Amino acid sequence: MSEISVTKKDIIWGYLAQFFLVASGLITLPLVLNILSAEEIGMNYLMLTIGSLVSLLDFGFAPQFGRNITYIFSGAQKLQKEGISTEKGDLNYKLLATMISAAKLIYKVMAVVVLVIMLTLGTVYIYKATMGFTSVKYALLIWVIYSISAFFAIYYTYYTSLLMGKGLIMESKKAMLASRITCILLTFIFLFMGWGLLGIAVANLLAPFVNRYFSYRYFFVPELRNKIENYYVNRKEKWEIFSIIWYNAKKLGMVFIGNYAISKLSLFLAGLYLSLQEIASYGLMIQLVTVLTVSSVTLFTISEPYLISLRIEDKRSELLKRFSFTMNVYYCLFIIGSLFLIILAPLLLEFIGSNTKLPSTYILTLYCFVIFLENNNCNFSTFILLDNKIPFMWPSLCTGVFIIMGDFLILQYTSFALGGLIMVQLICQSAYVNWRWIYVVCRDFKISFSSFLALGLKETFNKIRLSLFMLKY
């Protein structure tokens, strides 16, 4: 049994890695906006959207693998399709070896399927969006390279699940950091060499190999590698693990599809109705707000293994305190970041001479508000998922379906464009998912939402006082 906790180093490395994760796009953004044409920028955002669409074929396996790895390192002797086993003991190396073997096989198959889809259906879409590969130079070659990079990125995903599941948060972030820095440096080099969007695609192709190299070294230390190599895992055992993981992964996958429709599909549909310049503006807004989202939820994300450990040990009071603290940090960071984004981002884009502008202040403000609520309900639903139960599959999927229908009607029959797409998202989410999971968690812990917020503030002030005390003495 391995003790899982979150240290200050984990938090520091978590924020540092997340910064560079989004900075791989942000640091190079001024150069990209200055060098690439609006058509190239639009194609870049479309590629990212398609890449995230086919990545839905992960179908919830990554978080499910991560959580079950945490269960194993927390002493679980068997895994269940739903709920958590109360049988505990020493680390079960046979179970761990079986889980790793199953993950390798599943992600290998998944990566191949993704590559085939991107090179067939994805190519048809890019052909239409770029007017027969003519509006962007080397459009077909760029798309093929990007598709191959998606193959390797998906195939190596299970390494992150292994590290996070074991509680090696700092090590996971170091591997991610090395990969992102490599991507940033190569992007700068290739852009200055005049490769344009092709250079960005090549940089993204090479980055996953760096992440895989360091992740392997951090997880498969000699002692662990020697122990799990002693176990042979047959096909039947892999299938048993797959059936356990698949039980909730398929539900989580449907949730991801709903979330994709909520957050990403509007850009995909916009590519069929709006110009590449409008798509570039919309995509830039999504990218900047995504940076804000990733930064503000980092503490919650890196705390998940620790929260799972507290849940297994049934430490409900400590679990609620930790969760309320991470949510309080999210609220503060997102609100402050939104104000900076709305006020300063347009000025900075004008200062660097960007060829692409953000949408109006009204649309930008509305979008920040919508994403604030969306992140809030996502964090609460993820907290519910710690119990290895998924009650939110159908609500998420239905919300996504209504958003798709609304987006189509807005684009096909009105001139509301971006503002209409965002309003559809707000109305559909507010009908149920934006409040339901907050209610479920508060009901489970017999606490009102206002008391939950107060608890988060109290925990924040306590941690600040403790930090000041330690600095003083």
From TrEMBL:
Presence of the UniProt keyword Transmembrane in the record: yes
Transmembrane segments: 12-33, 45-65, 105-126, 138-158, 178-207, 252-276, 282-308, 329-349, 361-380, 392-410, 416-435
Signal peptide coordinates: none
Domain of life: Bacteria
Cellular component GO terms held in the UniProt record: plasma membrane
Compartment(s) of residence: Cell membrane
Membrane topology summary: Multi-pass membrane protein
Keyword Transmembrane: yes
InterPro entries: Poly_Biosynth_Transport, WZX-like
Coiled coil (residue ranges): none
Keywords (A to Z) from UniProt: Cell membrane, Membrane, Transmembrane, Transmembrane helix
PANTHER family: PSMA PROTEIN, PST FAMILY PREDICTED COLANIC ACID TRANSPORTER
Name the record gives this protein: Polysaccharide biosynthesis protein C-terminal domain-containing protein
Source organism of this protein record: Bacteroides fragilis CL07T12C05
